[in-house]
Design a protein that fits this description.
single chain, mainly alpha, Hypothetical protein af1432
């Protein structure tokens, strides 16, 4: 028997993000999920090393890798549409749940338990999912900053809105990341070296 899960995951590279925006640099879902995984790992490490936490950084990274996997099936529905009204929000949540189950069903029984825990959020990982959501917002902010640095004014409002969202998270590890790491994203490679 043949299973389709990993072939489906490889399609992340075909899902374009920021569909309503004029992009100077296109971003696909695969790139985004890698960045979120790295950022989630970093946020956990900051919490553990600087704030006395004890989160599983590796698990946070893997959750980040799969956090938007359902978009392979649903597509990347732009935020203004996804949250336009309660009916749309509810319908999209149902579509995501259906896509989560469909993805897990693409695995053999002996792997379903392992991978379901990365695709279907549960209360056991609530704190890690909070970290992944923060990493997702940081990734969006990085995208907006990059586009604005390239002169793309279409991202100015999104950058301001995302900065406000990130500031409002109230997470000390995010504040530390913003102070210690985010300024480098505005530098050239020569300035970073």
């Amino acid at each position: 028997m043949s299973y389709h899960f990993f072939a489906m995951m490889s399609r992340m590279k075909y899902i374009r993000r920021w569909g309503l925006m004029r992009n100077t640099e296109e971003e696909n879902l695969s790139e985004h999920c890698l960045e979120v995984a790295m950022l989630a790992h970093a946020l956990c490490a900051i919490r553990n090393e600087r704030l006395g936490g004890s989160l599983d950084c590796d698990r946070a990274a893997v959750l980040g890798m799969y956090h938007d996997a359902t978009e392979i099936i649903t597509g990347d529905l732009p935020t203004p549409i996804k949250y336009f009204d309660e009916n749309l929000r509810s319908a999209y949540a149902k579509a995501e749940e259906s896509a989560q189950k469909k993805l897990v069903d693409m695995l053999p029984d002996y792997l379903k338990g392992e991978f379901a825990s990365f695709i279907i959020p549960d209360d056991e990982d609530a704190e890690l999912w909070k970290i992944v959501k923060a990493a997702d917002k940081l990734s969006a902010l990085i995208k907006c900053m990059n586009e604005c640095a390239l002169g793309n004014r279409d991202f100015e409002k999104a950058r301001l809105s995302t900065e406000k969202t990130v500031d409002g998270l109230g997470m000390p590890e995010v504040k530390i990341f913003m102070e210690e790491f985010m300024p480098s994203f505005g530098l050239t490679i020569d300035e970073q070296a």
